[in-house]
Each structure stands twice: as C-alpha cells, then as structure tokens.
Amino acid sequence: MGAAKRLVDTVWLRGLVPLHSLTPDHLRELARKFSIEELPVGARVFEAGERDGKAVYLLSGEVELAAPGKPAQGLLAGSDPARHPLAPHQPRRFTARAVSPVSIVRIDIDLLDTMLERWRTDSCEGTELGDKVAHRRGDAEAARDAEAARVAAEEEVRRLRSELSVLERRAQAQRIKSSRAALARHRAEQEAEQVREAEAARRQVAIEAARKQAEQEMLRLQASEVARRRRADAEVARLRVEVDAARRKAIGEAERAVQAEAARQRVEGEARLRAEAETARERAEAEVRKVREQAGAEVHRIREQAEVEVRKVREQAEAARRVAEAEARRMRKAVTILEQRLDAEQVRSREREEAARIKEA
C-alpha cells in the first residue's frame, strides 16, 4: 500500500535542525517542493545500505532503528533527537521501520546544502559590511565597545554551550529511557500479535477441517444414494426384459396351438374345421387374455416392488441428509463456541497488555 502524502507546514520545518537557521523564504520554498508522507505500522522508512540522497525527518509517531549486530533503538517524534535527520549517513547504516503510524518528510540533501551555503554567504557579507563601517569611524571608543561586546558574546557563548551540554545529557538519558520503554512495549505487542495470529490460524484450521469433513460426508451420502438409484433402475430394467420375454413366449405357444388345431380340422373336414377353428380361436384369445392378465399382474407387482424400493432409498437418503445437517449444525455451534472463547481470550490479552502498560507507566 502506498504512503499517503499532504503538504508540509513551515512551522514544522522551523523546528528542525539545521532548517531552523534558514530564512522564511527558504522554508516556504522547501514546503512547496516536499510533502509529508503518512506511513502505516510496519512500513519501512528506509533500508540499510540505501543511498537515496534524502534527509528524513520524523514529524509524528515512533520509528525503530535497527542495524545488523546492534540492538534496536526507538525514536519518538517531538524528542530532541527527532529534530535531526534520521540516521543521516549515506549509504544508510540503519533500517528504519514504523512502530506506530508515522508522518515523515524527505528533503533533498543537495538542495538543503545549497540553501545553507547561501545563508552562510549572506551572513558573511553582512558581517564584512559591518566591519567596514566600524573601520571608517576609526575612533578608539568604538573599538573598545566592540571589544567589550566580543568578550560579552564569548562569555554568553560559553554559558550557552554549558547549558546545551547539560540539556544534551538530560536528553540522552531521557532518550535511552524512552527507547527501552518503546522496545519493551513493541516486544509485548509483537508477542501478543503472534499469540493472536496463532490462535486465528488454529481456529481457521479447525473450521477448514470441519468443513472438509462435512463435505466428505455429504459426498459419501450422495454417492450412496446414486448407487442405490442405479441398482433400482437396473432391477426394473431386468424385470421388464423378463416380462417381455414371457409375453413373447406365451404368444408363440398360442400361435403354434392355433396352427396345429387348424391342420387337424382341415383333415377332418371343411365344416368341422371352421367350427373347430372358431373354437380354437376363442380358446387362443382366452389364453392370450390370460397370458396378458398374468403379464400385466406381474408387471404391476414388479412396478410396485420397484416403487417401494425407490421410496426406501429416498427415505434413507433423506435420513442421511438430516443426519448430515444435524452434524453440520453441531459443528457450526462448536465453531461459534471456539470463536467466543477466542474473543474472550483476546479481551483478556488486551486487558493484560493494558495492565502491563499501566504498570510500566
């Protein structure tokens, strides 16, 4: 995710070192050229070994400076070290990472050096001009006043340097204390985050296993139902073939009986043949009706048996589906209980973290 950017205020630039010595015009020029970057937690400000030619200032939040073989150092915005560029050496000797949401500004080093050199040149020209005016006066009283002012200025510089040394020692002690507290807090947050991630992963694995088990059970039930249906269809087809064969056999036997009766009647006489043929026809029709009735009854019985078997299969499939749904509801309830326990554990973890922060404070 890219860093969000917004315009920088000259008020912030005026509090940075060495930008505080620049003129308002120079500060406004920097504000127009460079913008504030908003970085989230964990974002890298820069990497060790980079050569980006930028002076990076921390305006808000907290960063961690880490180098191979060295303990990590925390740096908080608003502290005295934060007024200076972060790890200014090129190439970078440290890797800077955001411990909290931070705001930074990156200023081109060459442009900054150019502005500082211009400021020093303007200051030197003003000093030389004042010296020429003083020499033109040429009176001893002005020289004495200048000497007294120089001595007073040197005394003031020594006093300010002494105060600055005391302030730097105090700031160093405060910075060490802040770095240790920030490092301890960061480690505690990392451990809590690892615990939360492990619990979330365990819960996800349990949910995935339950889902896969339910899917496998459903597939097994579906396969069983399909197999039963296929067996029932095969049995119905086999019975139909047997009924058709029996019907064809009965019809063939009736036709052979009619042919035999007709031959015998032709031998005995035309009149008797017709009478007997009629009788044979009636008997054949009765036999055919009987065979058809028997075949219809057999087909009806087989159909009823097939329907009963199909109903049994459907009832078994419905029972299996209800069992699978009950098992799925039970597993969803178990997952809900696990999630509630996880939420409670997270609340207790945050309470312990808050208690630890209060205790550290």
Q: Short description, anyone?
A:
With 361 residues, this protein is of the alpha+beta class. 73% of the residues lie in helices and 11% in strands. The strands form two sheets. A four-stranded antiparallel β-sheet has the order 1-2-8-4. A four-stranded antiparallel β-sheet has the order 3-7-5-6.
Question: In terms of topology, how is this protein built?
Answer:
Blueprint lengths: L3 E4 L2 H5 L9 H10 L1 E5 L4 E3 L7 E7 L1 E5 L6 E4 L18 E4 L3 E7 H29 L2 H129 L1 H91 L1
Antiparallel strand pairs: 1-2, 2-8, 3-7, 4-8, 5-6, 5-7
Helix pairs in contact: 4-5
What does this structure look like?
The chain has helices spanning 10-14, 24-33, 109-137, 140-268, 270-360; strands spanning 4-7, 35-39, 44-46, 54-60, 62-66, 73-76, 95-98, 102-108. It is an alpha+beta fold and 361 residues long.
